[in-house]
Amino acid sequence: MKADSNKFIPLPDELDYSVSDFYDMDEDLCNEQCTRLYEEYNDIKKRYTEVTEIASGGMKTIYRAFDQKTGRYVAVAVLKNDMGEETHGPFLAEARLTAVLHHPNIIKIHDIDFGEDEKPYFTMDLKLGDSLSDIIKKLEENVSSYVEKYTLEEKLDIFVKVCNAVSYSHTQGILHLDIKPDNIQVGDHGEVLLCDWGLARYLGHAESQDNDLLDNEFLMGQTIMGKVRGTPGYMAPEMVNDKKKRCEQSDIYALGALLYALLAGLPPIEGNVDQILKKTSVGNVISPKERCPGKSIPSSLNAVVMKAMSFEIDQRYKTASELVEDVRKYLYGYATSAEETNVLKELSLFYKRNKTVCHVSLFSVFLISIFIGVFIVNLEQSRDKEMSLRIIAEEERTKAEINLKKYQQEKELADISLSADPSNVLAKIKKDYYQNFFSSPKGTLDRVMKSLERIKEANDSAMLLYEFKGDIHFLRQEFDLALLELKKGRGEFENRTLFKALVSIKDYKSDGGPAPVEIIQKMIHNLNGKYIQPLPKLLMYDNEVRANKEEHLELVKTVFTVANKVSELEEFSYDPSSKMLSISGDYRVYSFDIKSDGKRFPLFGTLPIDHLKIRGNKNLHGIALEGLKLKTLDIRGEKIRSKRQLIPKGVAEKIIVSEELSNKGILELLKKNSKVAFTLE
Questions:
Q1: Is residue 546 domain-shared with residue 673, that is, in the same domain?
Q2: Is the distance from CB of 297 to CB of 286 less than 8 angstroms?
Q3: Domain that holds residue 320
Q4: Burial of 109 (0-12, 13-18, 19+ CB in 10 A)
């Protein structure tokens, strides 16, 4: 190139400048189009057209509409016509909260405004594709296109994206509280959106402090819908039992339920709403692998599901990221933190991760072994027969020593539970049972049973173990299992009454829930008034696990009848609205001494009673009511002959007595020495 090639060259004076007009045509055309577009925008009177309803929820309706300004179809959320102004705030709060969440797996909000009817609305991405609920349904129907597309790896990829969205929202201090397949949209090209943040709650501890939209007072610490609801089966136990305990682990429980549905094709818990909520409240969840034995559900993922859905909050994953990490460990061929692993499991996973390397290594070892074998054979041929036999004998002895050492190690691991005297271990378990049963019947029995199952049944403790396990199964209403344990031990001879009563219902098979009332009643009546000491504990356990309180009341009546050795009760009526129990008849047994605990338990102590009315009892003693927490005791019509009769055991406020039937001196003495008021009527 010449040195002066970049110098400025002046244009000739005779050049026709009109030629340059040809180079401005594109610019003119662009300007013309922009002008026309500007005029079209000015002419737009109604922004959203082609409005068609596509879904309807609790408080809002979703429409598909064409946005004339952006030239695309969007989804429009509008409050239903019957919604009052009090719903405007929560509706706008949901829209605004969703709008500030910027994540590729969270649906995007485009516009928030008021319509001509002065009701708020907001627009968002028009969701294309299927909901995850539809995908699961098609997979269960064995639709071939869905089965081919949504493999286990593809479903786990969808699950990980949902977890990432939840993890992000948690960093912003926001709980979703309604994670379920219906609220997850999956596009045809792998798009995954977590939708419907109508039940979300802002906890007010976001990691990012630069989001001013979340600092509004109406979002701080309140639930968007005013009262947290959710979807039975996907709600964490604390959302049923104590809503104040909601936290990030509540969403993690729902994520575990979501993974459950992906693996099993079923919701985690089925039944009507009351049944589902009751099972949720006590943590009665059957693992997907156990529930669907015909499906190939990996044990690793089964363990991940059950850890995420643990009843106790502190036993779940601490964060959604930890849950994602375990799922990825499975995908990459590593053991998850949720499962119990051993050397064989780790070796199996190592082989799956490194099949090619293992095959090459094994082939190499095989070749080397051949070469070594040939060398040894040649070497052995050069030695005499005696030396050959010595070498073989030495090798066999070495192998035997190695095998013996391995056996001893395995036996030591297998007998680890016998490191202490089994009788002492059993005594410690019983001590735990006696100390904690009253405060937590179900939790204590579940824990004790797990401990008993870990104890090796040694000869010197087997009988005691069988009998104790039989007692625990009896209290848990697993009567068939109790009978089985008694048959193993001395139950048929030591407690013939209980054994015969259990034999009378031998056809009943326990299913993990409370036994039918008629089965328990039949068993109790067959006790013939004997072996009734454990019945109060049976009532305590029943009260905790049985959802139908009317059925529980029938059991209380049955136990009271058997304890007093009568066929029918004159009156035993309970009003749950006033918490009043009325008893009529000369019944003497109102409570039992539970000797093993040193406590006294009233036979109707499981009923929520504030007021107790007793009629027709000729010799009532206050100690019979010990253990109750009554506000008032009404014993008008009862003759008061001694101070002992009116020891106010279990009465907090007032005892009502009959003036004409009471000993005045005793009443004055009681009034003077008692904090409970004695009222004469």
A1: no
A2: no
A3: 130-348
A4: buried
